[in-house]
Amino acid sequence: MADPSPAGAPRTAIPLSTTPPLRELWGYARSHRGQVVFASAMSLFNKACDIAPELLIGAAVDVVARGSDSFVASLFGIDDRWDQLVVLAVVTVVVWLLESASEYVAILNWRYLAQTVEHEARMDTYGHVQRLEMSYFEDHTSGGLMAVLNDDVNQLERFLDLGPHKLIITAANVVFVGVVFFVVSPLLALLAFLPIPVIVAGSLVYQTRLEPRYARVRAAAGTISDTLTNSIGGMATIKAFNAEDREQARVDADSRAYRDSNREAIRFSTGFNPLIRMAVLVGFTMTLLVGGHLALDGTIALGVFSMLVYMTQRLLWPLTALGETLDLYQRAMASCRRIFGVLQVEPTILPGAVDLAEPVRGAVRFDDVHFAYDVGRDHVLHGLSIDVPAGETHAIVGATGSGKSTVVKLLLRLYEPTSGRITLDGQPISELTFTSLRGAMGFVAQDVFLFHGTVRENLTYGRPDATDAEVRRAAELAEAATFIEAMPQGYDTLVGERGQKLSGGQRQRLTIARAILRDPAVLVLDEATSAVDNETEAAIQRSMEKVSAGRTTIVIAHRLSTVRHAHRIHVMEAGRVVEAGTHEELVDHGGLYAALWRVQTGETGAALAD
Ligand code: ATP
Ligand code: MG
Q1: Kind and range of the H or E element at 65?
Q2: Residue 4: CB within 6 Å of ligand 1?
Q3: CB-count exposure of residue 239 (10 Å: 0-12, 13-18, 19+)
Q4: How far, in Å, CA of 162 to CA of 101, rounded?
Q5: Predicted pLDDT at 524
Q6: Residue of the CA atom closest to atom 19 of ligand 1
Q7: Can you tell me the distance from the alpha carbon of 364 to that of 432, in angstroms, rounded to the nearest whole number?
């Protein structure tokens, strides 16, 4: 399952959202509008304070040059130049303090907001992914989904962190400085503003050109995440087949593709700043020359001229930083499309609204069930009917690939039948809540899965409130207690990712104990003892007789000896039940089961002679 996929195996790309990402993001951040407005106001106030020092410089020059005729003198009615400078100094200190304080509050709010949105985006996406049906996970690689949940969500945060603050102060800057310019000299204002339309138009052109480039970068990031997850998951296979070089080459190819797509985007986005600088140069030179001319003429005062030269710097330089913010913005939007793309996938298997009456009896019925894993593909089940009355133990046997595991996956509603009916206690399972349906089942899957954690955490996965005594009892019934207690940390032993620190048989016994501990109405065991030795299997079977007494039990097994005492055995062939009955009836019938039985007793006759 975790083996590396052959090179070039088709992968279904993460679907992209088609609606404009910014609009979706805004809708998404709806619940935080108050904070957005507050932070924006703080950013604006901060910018206003930030511009003031330039005005103060102009005023200071004005004081020195014009004395009692200065702007400050007329505003405050102070004649003495020194006193005027002291007043200016006080104003400067206040403004600087306000600037620092408002910057702190603004940035803090924006950054907190970025963290909140990042967290919520990740939780919503993960929550959504959890509701999608199994077929989605079969069509999309876990690495690709990981890239969305991790990289793309981070990329969004990187822009939200300071991007909006920077955009607001840049825009506010243009407005504030523009007002000052127009008040002082409309002609100079016009000259200083000359480059701005060029810069804005240039930015928009850049943006549209950058978008597909960053979409390619994000796709490449998804691919490499895919390859890495796949390779690391299959490390034992890589080593066993001496495939290290091949895997190295595969990661190398994907990493190169990522590097190249990023380089391509960087090459393009880095060209933005020099271009803007050229536009800035034009505006700056114009103010210098024309403004200087006006000052020499005596049309404008020296103080005003010096202020305007500074102001032109102030007006235009911040625009050069626009490139960086736009870059982050485009990267974030490419990520947004992927995040919202996942969020837009609708789950097709939805829970019903009915809760089963307690206690659940556990009567399971399949009625003419047809099923195909993919639309348009061959059916795996063709009109399957199985009736398991409450409390009985039924077995499903048959050749590999005949559809046995599929039957129990349908019972858990991991997949939906194409047609037919499946009921639990007479209720169609499609009408039941997942809590009711899956809560009634104790499932031991054919491909055993344990979480990284302790033995106890894994055992109590289906019943986190189980007591130690209950955990022990379940472990004993599954013949797991002895080996667990023999381990140095006992129930606190870490099992490793996917339980890889345990043997195959130990893993199986833990999953049996985990299912028993749930005390379910229906116990479903899919090849649960295939990896244990005969002696352990016999012991587990004795325990299972106790466990399954009065409980509906569905057992799938290849070794027929394990199910010969079942109330009824259903023999499957190519998606149909071809024979059903007790062991004795089926042997007497002389059909498929009888043939299988002869083969198995022939092979293992000594062990079965009871
Ligand atoms: P085994 O005894 O080997 O466990 P089984 O009887 O349990 O076999 P199933 O796992 O039910 O067989 O598979 C039945 C058929 O469905 C097989 O042909 C298999 O290739 C196909 N199949 C199983 N799972 C999927 C899936 N997720 N997507 C597509 N096809 C699948
Ligand atoms: Mg199977």
Answers
A1: helix 33-66
A2: no
A3: exposed
A4: 17
A5: 93
A6: 401
A7: 13
Tell me, what's the pLDDT at 11? 54
| 499 CA distance to ligand 2 middle (Å) | 20
Phi, psi of 525 (to 5 degrees): -120, 115
pTM for the complete prediction? 0.82
Q: Is 424 helix (H, G, I), strand (E, B) or coil?
A: strand
Q: Are 290 and 191 in contact (CB under 8 A)?
A: yes
Q: Nearest ligand to the C-alpha of residue 409?
A: 1
Pairing mode, strands 427-428 and 441-444: unpaired
7 pLDDT more than 60: no
Q: Which ligand is nearest to the CA of 135?
A: 1
CB atoms within 10 A of CB 464: 7
Instruction: Copy the structure tokens of residue 427.
Output: 């209720």
Between 447 and 207, the more confident residue is: 447
Compute the distance from residue 526 Cα to the ligand 2 centre, in Å. 7
Residue tagged 């005005």 (tokens): 55
Residue nearest to atom 10 of ligand 1 (CA): 405
Task: Give the separation between CA 516 and CA 10, rounded to whole angstroms.
Answer: 39
Q: Report the C-alpha gap between 438 and 416 in whole angstroms.
A: 14
**455 Cα to the center of ligand 1, angstroms:** 30
Q: Rounded to whole angstroms, how far apart are CA atoms 599 and 610? A: 17
Query: Is residue 380 lining ligand 1, measured as CB closer than 6 Å?
Result: yes
**Chain segment 82-118, per-residue pLDDT in tens:** 887 888 888 889 999 999 999 999 999 999 999 998 9
Give the three-class secondary structure for 398: strand
Contact between residue 462 and residue 518 where contact means Cβ atoms under 8 Å apart: yes
pLDDT over 70 percentage in the chain: 96
Contact 551, 521 (CB under 8 A): yes
Instruction: With beta carbons less than 8 A apart as the criterion, state whether 591 and 579 touch.
Output: yes
Q: Which of 549, 550, 554, 552 is nearest to 525 (CA)?
A: 554
Q: Is 497 exposed, middle or buried (0-12, 13-18, 19+ CB in 10 A)?
A: middle
User: Rounded to the nearest whole angstrom, what is the distance from the C-alpha of residue 400 to the centroid of ligand 2?
Assistant: 7
Decide the pairing of beta strands 441-444 and 522-526.
parallel
Q: How far is CA 157 from CA 116, 144, 153, 355, 574, in A?
A: 9, 19, 6, 41, 51
